[in-house]
Amino acid sequence: MSPHNVVNGYKLVAVLLLWLGSNAGGKNTGHAHEAEHQQHTTHSTAVSDLEEVVLVIQSQRSSYHARRGGQRKVEVLQQAAELRQGIPVVVLLHELSGYEGDWSILPALPLLSASYGQSASWFVFIEEETRVTLAALLHVLHRYQAHEEWFLGKRLNDNEASIIHHYAFSEDPSSFGYPDPAAGWALSTPLLQRLAERIQHGHLKSDFTIDLKHEGDPVSKKDIFVAVKTCQKFHSERVPVVKATWEKDAELLEYYSDVTDASIPTISLGVPNTERGFPYVVGTCPPYGDKKMVLSRVAVSRLVSSGCGCFSDDAPDDMVLGRCFTSLGIPIIHSPLFHQARPDDYSETLLSLQQAISFHKHWNIDPVAVYKHWLQDTHARDEL
Known about the structure:
The protein contains nine helices and 14 strands. By secondary structure, the protein is an alpha/beta fold. It is elongated and about 70 Å long. The protein is 24% helix and 13% strand. It has helices at 63-83, 109-116, 134-141, 189-201, 239-244, 297-306, 317-327, 348-352, 367-375; strands at 6-7, 10-14, 21-22, 53-57, 89-92, 122-126, 130-131, 150-153, 155-156, 178-179, 185-188, 225-229, 252-257, 266-268. 29% of the residues are buried. Helix 2 crosses helix 4.
């Protein structure tokens, strides 16, 4: 094992778990490959059947995600019964604890370690839409000694330093690999236990998750109200981009700003712009940065009637909203399709498997070109 593949004392092997893949609108990643191939002979410490595997489905608590996760669990258990090589433990992540942030994985590791660390050899993580071939999974896991520390997954790399990864490895971004969650990834139990111990008792450099790597009946445009938040200094620079791209796709849309501008037109909220953001349609504080979020009508009504709001003009609205919704018992659902940065800040392989909803920033890009390449829907569809 070369130093290039040793990260924080454990072996990082970027392999595609054979035939694990995301059901992503018919797109695929091409041929499976192993970034590092080693010959492993069979020893008693290699996994022998599915009884030694805990398969974690990264589900969330909302009815849609819970239902999709439950369907995937049934499919996995049916496949295991047909394979007759043991039945794995299948865990729906939203059932592991009452903490909504378990989707970001790190908070769930100590619970997984405590519950299954003594009986399992491997922990395999998949998303709700990930298709799994258990026979192929066993074949891959059998190559690696379960008493060693292994991190297996489909390896992605950044082409340049990215804000969503805190500009880590900025001198050589391609030197660091990270897994594609939609393809599935696995931790051997010794590594999971050490990570859990570090999370519980060690010092984490950061406990803030930005990037962790749905399908249903479409909602009518008549049921979606779009609020575009802006400020005076962007009226001539950014608003025209919206008007030239996706404004025509929104049946109900209004622009909210710190001033009234009849040429757009905008609605002034009476909240001054700050260096941290611009006026926001719900509450009394400007947003911290530029975020995209979807709120149900019921959630907005409860938020407004609760009186929960920002404590100052420059309070970070995303954190305040999180606090408000948590106190109201309204679940906050994560979607990886709302992106926190520009397309250049993500792995192109990862983006090619998604139908992105939005990106962040106009800095050093042509936003119209980004819209046409990544966001524009080129397929006409009826809205009935």
